[in-house]
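[User]
If only I could read backbone structure tokens as easily as an amino acid sequence. I have put the entry right below:
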Amino acid sequence: MATKSAAGVKITPLSDRVVVKASEDTEQMRGGLYIPDTAKEKPQQGEIIAAGPGKYEDGKLVPMSVKVGDKVLYGKYSGTEITLDNEQYLILRESDVLAVVA
């Protein structure tokens, strides 16, 4: 089980959930026009910063297939957004992770 702690806040996801920090999109100019943050699409790629222990099936613990540090792709409307210490995170189930980026 992995955790993320920052300034006294400790995140420990339960069951088969992961905590993802979305990748920052650094491109702000397209065709010479400024695109405000509110008009940008949410990123669909991020890095796992904490992972739960896995889920129980038939009384046995099934471990997670992703781990802390993996770069992953996830669905556009997946998970729950949270803000801790002015940082944006996303908590989602392992099944919402679409792929691991190598």
In short: The chain has one domain: 4-25+34-101. The CA atoms of residues 14 and 52 lie 5 Å apart. The chain has a mean pLDDT of 82. The two ends are 22 Å apart (CA to CA).
